[in-house]
Fold this sequence. Notes:
Layout: H1 3-22, E1 40-41, E2 49-60, E3 63-71, E4 75-77, E5 97-102, E6 105-106, E7 113-119, H2 122-135, E8 146-157, E9 172-180, E10 184-190, E11 200-203, E12 206-209, E13 211-215, E14 218-220, E15 226-228, E16 231-233, H3 239-243, E17 256-263, E18 271-272, E19 289-292, E20 304-306, E21 333-334, E22 343-344, H4 449-452, E23 460-465, E24 468-473, E25 477-479, E26 484-486, E27 491-503, E28 510-522, E29 527-532, H5 540-543, H6 552-556, E30 559-560, H7 567-571, E31 574-584, E32 589-599, E33 604-615, E34 623-626, E35 629-636, E36 639-651, E37 657-670, E38 685-698, E39 703-713, H8 724-727, E40 736-740, E41 746-750, E42 754-756, E43 761-763, H9 766-769, E44 778-783, E45 786-791, E46 795-797, E47 804-806, H10 813-816, E48 827-833, E49 836-841, E50 845-847, E51 852-854, E52 867-872, E53 875-880, E54 884-886, E55 891-893, H11 900-910, E56 943-946, E57 951-954, E58 1001-1006, E59 1009-1016, E60 1019-1020, E61 1026-1030, E62 1036-1042, E63 1047-1052, E64 1057-1062, E65 1069-1072, E66 1079-1085, E67 1090-1095, E68 1100-1105, E69 1112-1115, ...
Amino acid sequence: MSPGSWSWLWVWSCLLSLSVWTRALELExxxxxxxxxxDQQLQPGSDSSAGLQLNGSVLFFSDSFDxxxxxxxxxxxxxxxxxxxxxxxxxxxxxxxxxxxxxDLDDSDGQGKVYFRQxxxxxxxxxxxxxxxxAFPRDTxxxxxxxLIVTWENMAAAGTSGRGDGLDAKRNTFQLVVxxxxxxxxxxxxxxxxxLQFHSTSVGGETKLLExxxxxxxxxxxxxxxxxxxxxxxxxxxxxxxxxxxxxxTSGQRGVWxxxxxxxxxxxxxxxxxxxxxxxxxxxxxxxATVLPRQPDEVNFTTKETQVVPEQKQEFPTESPTEYPESExxxxxxxxxxxxxxxEYPESExxxxxxxxxxxxxxxxxxxSEPRYPVSEPLEPRRTIPETTQPRYSPIEPRYPDPVQPxxxxxxxxxxxxxxxRPHQPQIIIVDEDEGLNVNVYGYDVERCANNRHKCSAFAxxxxxxxxxxxxxxxxxxxxxxxxxxxxxxxxxxGKVNGRVFVGNSPSPVELSNHDLHSYVVANDxxxxxxxxxxxxxxxxxxxxxxxxxxxxxxxxxxxQPGYQNGFSLIGGEFSRQAEVIFQPGNERLSIxxxxxxxxxxxxxxxxxxxxxxxxxxxxxxxxxISPYKEIYQYDRDLITSSxxxxxxxxxxxSAVQPRSYQWRQTITFKGCQHDAAIRPELAxxxxxxxxxxxxxxxxxxxxxxxxxxxxxxxxxxxxxxNPCFTGRHGCxxxxxxxxxxxxxxxxxxxxxxxxxxxxxxDADECSETPQVCGxxxxxxNQPGTFRCQCLSGFVFASDGKTCIEEDRPVDxxxxxxxxxxxxxxxxxxxxxxxxxxxxxxxxxxxxxxxCRDVDECQQDRCHRDxxxxxxxxxxxxxxxxGFHGDGFQCNPTEREKTPCERHRESAQSSTSDSSxxxxxxxxxxxxxxxxxxxxxxxxxxxxxxxxxGQCWCVDASGxxxxxxxxxxxxxxxxIDQAVTPPPVGxxxxxxxxxxxxxxxxxxxxxxxxxxxxxxxxxxKKEEAKPLLHIPDRVVIAVAYDCVEKMVYWTDITGPAISRxxxxxxxxxxxxxxxxxxxxxxAIDHVARxxxxxxxxxxxxxxxxxxxxxxxxLFDTDLINPRPIVTNSAYGRLYWADWNRDGPKIEMAxxxxxxRVVLVKDDLGLPNGLTFDTDNQQLCWADAGTRRVECMDPHxxxxxxxxxxxxxxxxxxxxxxxxxxxxxxREAVVAVDRQSQRETDEFLPQRRSRLxxxxxxxxxxxxxxxxxxxxxxxxxxxxxxLGGFTCRCPDDGAGGRCVESNL
Length: 1303
């Protein structure tokens, strides 16, 4: 084929693949439904419901449900729905529901049907996962475990049957798929082309449009009152929004809409998919979504139309115009609400607010939560907080530099558009503290910028002054030059809380040890949120008044009034804070010390907190309300002080209200740049105003939560600023900065690192747009609003902080293998720092370490005089002479009792012929008589032969013949010695202590790389952890190590593929690249040179040689979710675990596929990790369902628990007396001592994300033997088994040249 033909073929292939996701959804593309699909059918009618008990759980908003109700009227609810008159036309309803297409529908004419089922088949799960991945392209590791599929087919509008106006012939067909995973659930809504033939139904005599959305129902508000929760509405009050359901998308294919509808343990908001690109048309914007949010500071709720689908275009498409007031200045319209009156300003280019409820409701604010298969940093939710007593204004048209001019009409105000990236951690994000970091780490000196530019932020310029240099943030950023953040970008703070706090009159303190603190600030409106995890019930209620514990981040990123600066603008992110709190009337005192350590690689401000003192007791179940307050900050060189009085009230469970107060004093010290007087604060005092304060102790999750709004401005009373940029009521995107204009006008501009019109801002992926942005020898990692460059292994940043140059570092000759010590069997190389090392001979050898000679201990008379000494390499053995018994060190003459073999042999030899003459001679067996052969210890030799008939066979320890081992003349079977090995002689280690060979490492997989960390004995040398291998765009799951060739093997599910590379470096070699779907487990038999793996999509256990040849399926039946797999080379055994939720099990078989048995099936949950300890013959597993690590002797079936209460283990490996497992939730490698049955160590990688497979790299292979050590003379595959081996052919048949046999 010519090059031109290839080019056209490539173009057409791209166009064809693109068309799959941009064309309309066809009816036949719905998920399979009907009786043949195993569906149940809803009873016909106009308001029928049916309950369905779920096998798993569905997460909806912040709650979990195991039962749903399917209704004729186009929805699924999580409580039994009331009569339709209670909710049709009256949304939001009081109960939780997913409205796929809500209206008064009817299927009683026999044409319409409602089908529903649960489905966890691999085909359905895979298809649901694909829709989710298309909607959230940055998410990886999407693996649904169950789906709920509901199909409404040929539904009619109620009351239209027989009318004859044509409406009775119009039918609607649509489908809802709810896909659930461990920590999140998704709704996939499917509307096929021509599937929506009517857009409204008659409700109470009025025509009402159909609705699509997600309704939270009633939630608990202030003082335990029930209030309406969020109603996330996809459609609007325009009929075009119903029609658009088949034409537009959030997942890249018309008619397919994907939303994340719930997550655990934290939930932020309903999250729409982000893939709305439809390249073949210009107008691709999703109809506005209506959100009824819950706000902590609102008296009334506001219905606003919110654009939820980001447009990833170079130009902004023109939206279908909607009817909004056109005038920029209008007379106020007075809207009377319950308990209030005042002017309400209609908004130009927005919907006039309508108030639906006069009560307060508790807030929703961002919290961290758990990640899945490798995750990206989440985008922040977009949110504004409307005020009922303040006017709302419209922004002026944004001004853009020529020649780019956006094309859009009537952009809508933004409210509560949540993030699309997955949550990030089950509790608060864990951030290691760096104890060596202090606020003076960036102290300025008299050096010049030429040598210190890298000490400035990447978003700062360095300027020289007469006495030194200073760093200044670039335009669009703010901070002290050392730390700079983008204007308008939300900020996060992570840290740890420690200390001792007494509560009330208690004589014993509550100890706090590394409790996670997480804070989040919406910078363009000054709203701050703080959460601290794992708070004991005895302390949590009493911490509620202490909102200022995290309030310093509110001051740091407070909304700035004209001419004033917040804390971060003045001093950056490195400072110390010490505060004292005195409570009244009891005079309790509490000291707070906080160390702010700057911004880490994730753009998070890092803080450590210590508490010491006493708090007044607050009764469990009490609520606390803190009054708004003002705090004066006084600024001096390198010192800031403030003080204030805080009033609060405590409402006990019995509704008793107690007023309280406390005095607050704090001192903030920092290190500023002294060389430029211009950057010092011009105003000696500023006032921080704090209001809308919300506090709560979440006893169920043991979290203390705070939220507050912060503004920094003048200490003098004056008319408050009305421009929305200074009130925070501007409607700009959460990742945008508000730019004030004249009067009440303003513009919204996306923060640096984001693109959009300011109303909607999307993260710019600098790594994709500018692939060489990090230069050579570096890896680019995109993050919200920015990117990070990381030098490859062996490279470091140059003095400019940007260029990666080869690292000039000492050489560890021991690790590299370039030392001149004797071989590892006789000597040990020990690294001593720099490029130095020392050689030393191992015990049993003598010499200088470079040349080691065996010590002949037999020359030293160590054995008993009646024993024989046998020298061995590095050791020796003593054995008593015949006629003596003992251990060789002590021998006593005795006539030991004959063994069964010796008695059997004597009996056979006594069977003489009938000749009495022959009886005088030594007994001999009769001709043809079998005489057993015994070894020197009197045990049956494993191979027995009968010379008279020319046959040999294998026997067990009792002399019984093993089936299928008998051979004919001239052949001898290969038999494993079944006899008990006699006790060792000579000096040996204690049986419960296993010496650890030097140079052993842990290898573990972390998304697109494999890292290694050395072991010092059993201790993890955390400071020496380094990446072993970078594999961009790959998700590595399982790892294994071949100790013979020192080769690392791994599986990845993105290829999918199995690959390998040498531990010493070199290119990656593919092993298996075809016929895989989801390889999740891998194991190596280093003796037989075999590779085993599991595939959880193909549901197989397979084997091949180490180079991937001679591939054969061992098992493909009775498997659901096989994952971990391990080998026992000496016994020819194979073990694997299947985490099938309906029947988890651990199985065992010979490596040739015979003797398959279930070892464990009771009391299992999710057996993710599996390892085999050959020293102790123990099979151990880590179970994420039971949260235990257990071990079993597979021979005797003795089972014991090692540790309990772990979090979410994934993989497990045994080394000596320790077990090491990776944990998804802790994002750590955890060490467990099997003898003490407790966790002893934890390693947290520098870059935090889920960890997957783990293995060890011993410097020497463990001694083992099986019959396939040299391929057992097989023509192709030699597969060991207990007591023999089997020659097998690969599945491809090997061209008919393969011979199979059992030996």
